[in-house]
UniProtKB/TrEMBL annotation:
Keyword Hydrolase: yes
Classification via PANTHER family: COCE_NOND FAMILY, PUTATIVE (AFU_ORTHOLOGUE AFUA_7G00600)-RELATED, PEPTIDASE S9 PROLYL OLIGOPEPTIDASE
Lineage of the species this protein comes from: Bacteria, Pseudomonadati, Pseudomonadota, Alphaproteobacteria, Rhodobacterales
Designated gene of the protein: cocE
Chain ranges of the Xaa-Pro dipeptidyl-peptidase C-terminal domain: 278-532
One Gene Ontology molecular-function label: dipeptidyl-peptidase activity
Enzyme class: hydrolase
Name under which the protein is recorded: Cocaine esterase
InterPro entries: AB_hydrolase_fold, CocE/Ser_esterase, Galactose-bd-like_sf, Xaa-Pro-like_dom, Xaa-Pro_dipept_C, Xaa-Pro_dipeptidyl-ppase/CocE
Plastid keyword on record: no
EC number(s) reported in the record: 3.1.1.84
Record keywords: Hydrolase
Species this chain originates from: Ruegeria meonggei
Pfam family, one: PepX_C
Length: 658
């Protein structure tokens, strides 16, 4: 179907601010619309990906609109925070504007991955009249429990990493070809970019800040059908089954083997994302009776052991389906912890756990799909050697897990603050340990994420860790391992002091979601990725990446990564963009106070005589009382790199019970 592309148009809000939009229109008259609403720059940031999606959707008869959030890309205004009231209020206005256009038939759907997956659900929660369906990829239903900031009340190092990335992203200027006031606007962006990493870090409990935008606060508020998709290599695995289990409207969950990318451009096992999306919107935006509501409630790729490495590579497994979720095919099987293994019944004894701080070096990048490569979890055997492990006997029959395992345990500690990290692993007869699922818990949160409390050394407590969703089949002869540690670096920021956690085994058990399907139903698995258009950008510098682990003379374990995302010229408007990032993690195995993260981003933009460059530096370190955050910005323009602004910021945030 022929389509028309409008490179830029303006959506004027009630207060006069204008949001920039790119539009793809089918030449068939009024059509339903698909909105993607992001802070990642339609002009260059997501342009390569947009070419692979919105072009295809427009050819299928949809008006597609890609809008820059206020203060980002080419949009006017000032960015304030992720999923802020301003962002969501503006989003409602954008949906109303789209529905009122003569090229739209009044029906609007939303699509997005990560940020766009989040705000699609959040806008559905607010019930704008024209929003009729959502496709949400790699998102969350609980911003405190399942985002990039905290996990189980533990601080994720990606809080500062992501804050550093957004700091670099938000300093980029609007395109002079679209904004005559680009330079004044750029200076305002440079001066007023929020110190997000520090702002987020101040909200250390599940307070009203995190409840805002968490749709689990009221499941009934979602009244539009939802297709929820993610991948097992992604960080965001818990939302699709939660949505399928809790929403009253038509909801379908799909989890494949993919990383943090749309499935058709996955580097692991690309799949036909387009047909899934078009089928969903055809049903709920066009009213076609195509059976989308009759698909299984939950389709998942049941993984098996595949000798894991940090590099992108093929997965091993098969697609399965459950017509209902929760499923009667999944039963709770209780394995009691015993010294070094499991037993059928509770037994006496205790196990003390004290881990070196660098346990977790095989954990991979928290959200795989953000780097170029070298980001997946590898063989867990080295981390297992530094953890307290409970191993099953070699399995006499295959064992399938589908859902969230739950560790219930009684413990005592020797410090007022401590953490425990649980990993389920599939260990092959050759000793290769593949991570199935994991989860951390700040033990001060044993009772509540809203009102944590300091622990009394020597006192006994009871707690639970509900591990992340999984779908995994252990083959005959393999061993199921539960590995427990008091640290998990660099994913989890360590506790303030070394700690010993003692498990009292009489009251410790792992509850496994064991799947026993007597008859498999048709999985309706996504087929291979179809051919899709690719942005014909001119590559001026090829992407490259490296990852290096070393031990410094003082004993600190270091992880250094570098990603050069290359340099390209856009064929539509000749903008040349280049970027790269260095990251550095360091910690001494014996001292959690040595934990440090550093990163440096750089961006260059040019077209003809216009040139600008931005470099940012960020770091975070700590002691037992505080976190110390620092950032620096330098912006230049012209071939001679005339300085526009250099500025530094420092923040100290008390640790509280982190």
């Amino acid at each position: 179907m022929p389509i028309e592309t409008i490179e830029n148009t303006w959506i004027t809000l009630a207060d006069g601010r204008r949001l920039a939009a790119r539009i793809w229109l089918p030449e068939t008259g009024p059509a339903p619309a698909i909105l993607e609403y992001l802070p990642y720059r339609k002009r260059d940031g997501t342009a390569p990906r947009d070419e692979t999606t919105h072009t295809v959707f427009a050819e299928a008869g949809y008006a597609c609109i890609r809008v820059d959030i206020a203060g980002t890309g080419d949009s006017e205004g000032q960015f304030d925070d992720e999923y802020s009231e301003q962002e969501l209020r503006d989003g409602e206005a954008v949906i109303a504007w789209i529905a009122a256009q003569d090229w739209c038939d009044g029906h609007v759907g939303m699509i997005g991955i990560s940020w766009g997956g989040f705000n699609g659900l959040q806008l559905a929660f607010r019930q704008p009249p024209a929003l009729k369906a959502v496709v949400s990829v790699a998102s969350t239903v609980d911003r405190y429990a399942d985002d990039i900031h905290f996990m189980g009340g533990c601080l994720l190092s990606d809080n500062v990493n992501w804050g550093s990335q957004m700091f670099a992203y938000l300093t980029r200027p609007a395109d002079p070809d679209l904004r005559a006031d680009w330079r004044q606007d750029w200076l305002e962006r440079l001066q007023n970019t929020p110190f997000s990493a520090a702002d987020w870090l101040r909200h250390q409990t599940r307070d009203p800040y995190w409840k805002h935008g968490s749709i689990c606060e009221d499941w009934s508020a979602i009244q539009t059908p939802v297709l929820a998709i993610t991948g097992w290599a992604d960080a965001y695995v818990n939302a699709p089954p939660a949505l399928a289990a809790n929403l009253a409207v038509p909801t379908k969950a799909v989890i494949g083997p993919w990383e943090h990318r749309y499935p058709h451009i996955s580097k692991l096992d690309p799949a036909d994302f387009h047909s899934e999306v078009i089928g969903w919107f055809d049903r709920w935006l066009k009213g076609q009776q195509n059976g989308a509501e009759d698909l299984p409630a939950y389709r998942a790729y049941m993984q098996e052991h595949f000798n894991p490495t940090p590099q992108n590579g093929p997965r091993k497994g098969r697609w399965i389906a459950e017509s209902r979720w929760p499923s009667p095919n999944v039963l709770d099987q209780v394995w009691h912890l015993a010294p070094g293994g499991f037993s059928q019944n509770p037994g006496p004894g205790s196990v003390g756990i004290t881990s070196p701080c660098h346990v977790g070096m095989e954990s991979g990048y928290f959200c795989a799909g953000m780097r170029i490569d070298n980001e997946l979890a590898g063989d867990q055997a080295n981390d297992d050697d530094l953890s307290a492990c409970f191993d099953s006997a070699p399995l006499q029959d295959p064992l399938e897990l589908l859902g969230r395992a739950k560790l219930k345990f009684q413990f005592s500690v020797d410090q007022p603050a401590a953490q425990l990290v649980a990993r389920l692993c599939d260990v092959s007869p050759e000793g290769v340990s593949q991570r199935i699922s994991y989860r951390s818990l700040n033990l001060c949160h044993y009772r509540s994420h809203e009102t944590p409390e300091a622990l009394q050394p020597g006192e006994n407590y009871e707690a639970e860790i509900t591990l992340n969703e999984c779908a995994h089949r252990l083959r005959e002869g393999h061993v199921l391992r539960l590995a427990l540690s008091t640290s998990y670096w660099p994913i989890v920021w360590p506790s303030p002091r070394p700690s010993k956690v003692t498990l009292h085994l009489q009251d410790c058990a792992i509850h496994l979601p064991v799947r026993e399907a007597t008859k498999e139903i048709q999985a309706s698995e996504p087929g291979p990725a179809q051919v899709y258009p690719v942005l014909a950008a001119e590559q001026l510098r090829a992407p490259s990446a490296l990852s290096e682990r070393t031990v410094a003379e003082d004993g600190r374990v270091l992880l250094k990564t570098y990603d050069d995302y290359g340099k390209t010229r856009d064929p539509y408007h000749d903008l040349i963009v280049g970027s790269d990032v260095h990251m550095h993690y360091g910690i001494h195995p014996d001292d959690p106070a040595t934990a440090q993260f550093e990163t440096a981003w750089s961006f260059t933009f040019e077209r003809g005589d216009w040139q600008v460059a931005i470099s940012t530096e960020c770091r975070m370190n700590c002691d037992a009382q505080n976190f110390y955050l620092y950032r620096k910005l330098r912006a230049t323009e012209g071939a001679d790199e005339t300085e526009v602004l250099t500025k530094e910021w420092s923040k100290t945030v008390p640790r509280g019970l982190l």
